[in-house]
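During the no-cost extension, the postdoctoral fellow (Dr. R.K.) reprocessed legacy sequence entries with the updated structure-token encoder. One reprocessed record is reproduced below for audit purposes.
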Amino acid sequence: MNRTFLLLSIVLLSFNGITQNIKKGTSLFDSDWLFQLGGALGADSPDFDDSDWRPIELPHDWSIENLPETNSPYDRDAISQINGGFTTGGTGWYRKHFTVPSDQKGKCIIIQFDGIYMNSEVWINGTSMGSHPYGYTSFWYDLSKYIKYGEENILAVKVRNEGENSRWYSGSGIYRHVWLRIAEPVHVAQWGTTISTSEVSQSKADVTIKTRLNNADASARSIKLISRIVDQNGMESGRVESFQNIEGNQSFLISQQIKVSNPHLWSVEKPALYTAVNEVYSNNLLLDRVETKFGIRSIQFDAINGFRLNGEPMKLKGGCVHHDNGPLGAKAYDRAEERRVELLKAGGFNAIRCAHNPPSPAFLDACDRIGMLVIDEAFDMWLDAKNAHDYHLYFEKFWKSDLESMVNRDINHPSVIMWSIGNEIPKKTKPETIKTAKMLAEYLRTIDTSRPVTSGVNDAATDKDPFVSALDVVGYNYRPENYATDRLRKPERVIYGSESMPLEAFLYWMGVIDNQNVIGDFVWTAFDYLGEASIGWRGYYQEQNFYPWNVAYCGDIDICGWKRPQSFYCDALWKKNQLSVFVKPPDPSFEENPKRVGGSKWHWFDAVADWNWSGYENQMFEVNTYSSCDKVELFLNNKSLGIRPTNRSTEFKASWNVPYQSGELKAVGYIGKKHTNIAVLKTAGEVSQIKPTPDRTVIIADGQDLSYITLELLDDAGIINPKAEDIINFEIEGPGKIVAVGNANPRSIESSQSNVRKAWKGRCLVVVKSEKQAGKINLRVSVDGIKPAHVEIQSKNK
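Re-encoded structure tokens follow.
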């Protein structure tokens, strides 16, 4: 996203007597909003009395908040049902009071919303600026003509998340950031800088910077545009100046070329970022300054070499990711988005498919910084509905502007390697659908030719070839059996598994390894998510109300960010010298579903990291290891139970039947004759201590930063007790607040916006957010009968 930074004057924003100083340029506009859930007749009017509305900070998601009658966000009778995880939508209103000083008159004032779910309408001082139906694309309005300078201004936003409109948890409200930009009449247009690189090598790169300048004055202006490229160390790598006369009330696109010597190439391993700095001058007066992050890298796709990044072939170890942040709901805090990417990278993933919509800008920023490849996806449906009130109602009128929003906003992210125009679009043999696919792909290529166009195709049979012909790279949803045959039938076709089933991870990954034209695999899903409740256990489609299930329970990483067994199996498929051990419980972890449709494969084997089975002594347990070692030896209380090979012929698994005895279950991995790895499960005693582990002990005092604290319930020896489900209480002091709690239990209907949470499998999560004051945040964690634990977090100014 292009953000402007021009520090020339101050704008004053007021809220119920509180004044906030915001510097001229682009400023975060998340503070001091008012919110009302439900109807509010006349709330678009400046004279409306909002004195009893609730003060809130953005990002905000009312669907994750507690319902008054239950102190929980979940309702068995919610319209969203299983799709939305039994959460509630409805209508919500937001209002913000602010003042722009009189000396800013004549400036351009632009407000940008990174995402509102859904059907939003925006008013400024009673004048409607327009409506935006789609809940996942960013949009902006020019407020300049309607601002009252030196007086109070009222911004009102109505949001309607009504009816069945999503196949997963969407959240409700202004769930991403809002930005206010104040610019001179001559300025860089919103999303007006586009950067591309060509002839990329270790020795040089040709960088093209295209900058669209707007002149909102009635008279012509002569301007000078200076563009500089600065590397991650602050060193200037090149600069260029251009001169242009721009007529009044017109815009002009300036194209500039800069050669960069010995560039730092952006890659997954070394995600080097550059900054393009645009400075606009008139009569030697600086009018605007925009900084845009980008990376220098090359991407190629072909059926012979597969996918190449900077000329090096690589396979995409990918996962599909929905947009919610688990216990936080849909709220897109920067740190929440960053943490998800960090955890995915640590879990072995190098690529993400954003399913099935554009993500937040903060998510892509994190992918750029951390080194994660991205398929940026536009839509889940086109003209044909998947739900009665979904985007198909708006597609025909808004597809072009929403596609432009995705591409123009995200085009400079080096992490983005493909544009996806859709997912599992129905009626692919219908002439109108084929025409739409070609229309979308062709229009997208008029905006950006540097990346291929793709789509997730859920049935790539031969009669779908006319639909597929619109695509440059083809995503196969759940069709590994077509890889080899289509390699012969369509030898020029580049394929990837755009969705795959965890239970068949071996089959899908071997299909990637064995076919050079298959460039990668994207599991459904990499990160668990709210909604589509129970598909990872009961199957899909769900024909019953499976309340209290509210989580899909199909992610390699659960909604709290902890690895699940299938993630450890992917370690064995993707990495060397990996080893893990799991046990099949004697009774199913959850009730079985006798009507599971077609033997759903979004689930994983019922496997737990647990050797605590009092009452089952000497009964046989199935013990499984996932290993990329040559072989594994299993020990029970230091007695060998035998050695098993773990290689492709065994699908990198080994299994034993073990009579239960308390103590230690240990797996030892060997490469050749060398002992290289171990995995251990130990029987735990009664819980006697709490171990808190914060992911960060220092956060920024900006009212947005987060610390995620994992709580483990341990015995005297420091062993986690996976049977522990104690109630954990939290108390906080200092300039911070608890914004979420969770335990990853997919059937828990406890509040995630509370100071108490029950543990599950011996663990619990609490998320602490900073306030805008620096200082020490002290968190006290207590369980009845156990000595409390304390966590200290430093909240510091930038």
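Residues 3-183 form a domain with the Jelly Rolls fold (CATH 2.60.120.260). The two ends are 21 Å apart (CA to CA). The remaining legacy entries will be reprocessed before the final report is submitted.
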